[in-house]
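Example 3.2
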Amino acid sequence: MSALAIRSVIINDFHRELPKHGYTVSEIHAEPTPFNHQLWYLCAKTEHGFVLTYRSIWDGDQWEQWIELPRDQAPLRSLANNYQLPNKMNVVLEDWYTCLTTDDGALNVIDLRLGKRYGWEDEHAPFVFIYNLWHTDDHALGWSMNKPEGRYDFGRLKTLFARITGRISENRLQHAVSIETEVHD
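Structure, written as tokens:
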């Protein structure tokens, strides 16, 4: 029950804060970070993209830096018109993803619902789920899921618990919204 109450407070805070920065929000997705329900990953769906951040019930008036990603779903939809995408991918992604075309012509489809691995401590952390899609030699669609390895250790747990209690490092405080141009995998 406490997790549902905290989730509701966190989402309402984000809903109130986003319009102050010019965002019109259609929906917010929230996921707790590992081992707790006081620090949450938030992903807001806006008219043109997504806004991502982490928020603890103990953050007060401080906000962690926001990351803005484009709502670039056209590359996957164009593949879907020509190729049969696996049903699993259609079910899993719903409308919470963005796409990035790689230098070698492959397509990375980033599922935004679970955020970044250790994203509360590292803005360059990889996203938890990235689907790699490519055309095979026989013009079929190949795909695989890239999931970064877990590396929980006492040092990471220490930073997680510090962040849970509302301690946001100075370089992670929101002074301005950052727009992420690269998606790290």
